[in-house]
Specification:
The chain is α+β, with helices and mostly antiparallel strands and about 400 residues long. Helix content is about 50%, strand content about 10%.
Length: about 400
């Protein structure tokens, strides 16, 4: 235990994170293999899905279509967003179920997706099924069902307009007949006759205008659109996607392996390398003493102790450090500290005789002019032997 101003505690850098992954490479590899194996297994057991597309070009029917204002960015007058919602509606799904001879139209709605390419009058109808033939049949059925529904909607709207015009024309016709009868009964030159003749003329113009509108509606040709791209059976499944599944499994396995490696490394208290001492205790490591240590190892340890203590007075406890090569570490370290001499040019320790060490040492005293008794440590430390205290004592 050293009570001193040591260097900052051990902190992790990028190399330390890499060393953690190297130490736990088996755990990381197992998690990575598990993730990839799980992705492959899921890829195998997931049912394959095939998606077919049919494209419909939408034309104005000529009967009160919902239109957009044509601008430089909106080049199509039709509101294709509304048409896409109609193509995905329950009404169109019911007609598609009749074409496919299916009972559940709501299930068919879940299998269809309708999108609109930008600045176009095209509806792209995607249908997903478990086999290519069913996918193509479903997309084609929805395209035809949408065109049928658009044709019927336009025909119903046209019929309503023609019925309204016919009713209005009958009313005006009746009023015109009454006006003609009144003109015939009124004497010439009277004000009542002039008013009746003017009313008869106005009603006649109304009948003519309504007749023209009715004839125009009768000549309207309903053009809902056409299928410009027939649905064909796809050659390959659209789902599941092998790159997506394998990439996700690889990422999840790597993420799980990295987390497990760092968690296992944090909970592990075994010392495998000298760096583990700093990692677990956050204290600086002075030296690594092998089991068959020579005197040079303890002199290096003494040099590390001296350089770590720095200036000032310090007390170093060297008790209970175990034994190396049959000798207590504390005694051999004390002997190395007792014989340490620091020259102004080189930190090479002396090779003279050693003195027995005690459990404490005083360091950092000013350099004396001549060696002192008790095996003094000029300029750096003062050692004592046996049970006699240091003179003068450390603060």
């Amino acid at each position: 235990m050293v009570r001193s101003s040591f260097p900052p505690p051990h902190t992790r850098d990028l190399a330390d994170y890499g060393s953690v992954l190297r130490r736990r490479r088996l755990l990381v590899a197992s998690c990575l293999f598990t993730g990839v194996a799980g992705a492959v297994g899921l890829l195998v057991v997931t049912p394959k899905q095939y998606a077919a597309i049919a494209q419909v070009q939408v034309f104005p029917t000529g009967v009160q279509d919902q239109v957009n204002q044509v601008t430089s960015r909106q080049r199509e007058p039709l509101n294709l967003d509304t048409e896409a919602q109609i193509a995905h509606s329950a009404t169109v799904a019911a007609k598609a179920a009749e074409i496919l001879k299916k009972a559940d139209s709501e299930e068919l709605r879940k299998q269809v997706v309708v999108d609109v390419p930008p600045n176009s009058a095209i509806l792209s109808i995607w249908f997903t099924a478990g086999d290519p033939v069913s996918a193509a049949a479903g997309a084609q059925a929805f395209a035809e069902a949408y065109l049928q529904n658009r044709t019927l909607s336009a025909a119903r709207t046209l019929a309503v307009q023609m019925k309204a015009l016919t009713t209005q024309l009958h009313q005006v016709d009746d009023e015109l007949g009454k006006a003609a009868e009144s003109v015939a009964t009124l004497p010439h030159g009277t004000a009542a006759r002039v008013v009746a003749e003017h009313q008869q003329s106005v009603l006649g113009k109304q009948v003519y205008s309504l007749s023209l509108k009715y004839d125009a509606l009768k000549t309207i040709a309903i053009t809902p659109g056409s299928v410009i791209s027939q649905a064909l059976p796809p050659s390959s499944p659209s789902a599941p996607s092998a790159p997506l599944y394998l990439g996700s499994g690889l990422f999840l396995g790597l993420l799980a392996g990295t987390g497990a490696a760092f968690a296992r490394d944090r909970l592990d208290t075994r010392l495998r390398a000298p760096a583990d001492v700093e990692r677990l205790t956050t204290l600086p490591l002075l030296a690594d003493i092998p089991l068959r240590a020579d005197p040079g190892a303890f002199r290096s340890l003494a040099a590390g102790v001296v350089s770590s203590l720095g200036e000032g007075y310090h007390r170093l406890l060297v008790a209970e450090l175990g034994t190396v090569a049959g000798a207590p570490v504390a005694e051999r370290l004390g002997a190395a500290l007792s014989t340490w001499r620091r020259s102004p040019w080189s930190p090479t320790p002396p090779t003279g005789p050693t003195r027995p060490s005690c459990s404490s040492a005083c360091a950092g005293r000013p350099r004396p002019r001549s060696p002192r008794p008790y095996g003094g440590w000029p300029g750096r430390a003062r050692r004592c032997s046996g049970r006699s205290p240091c003179r003068p004592p450390c603060p």
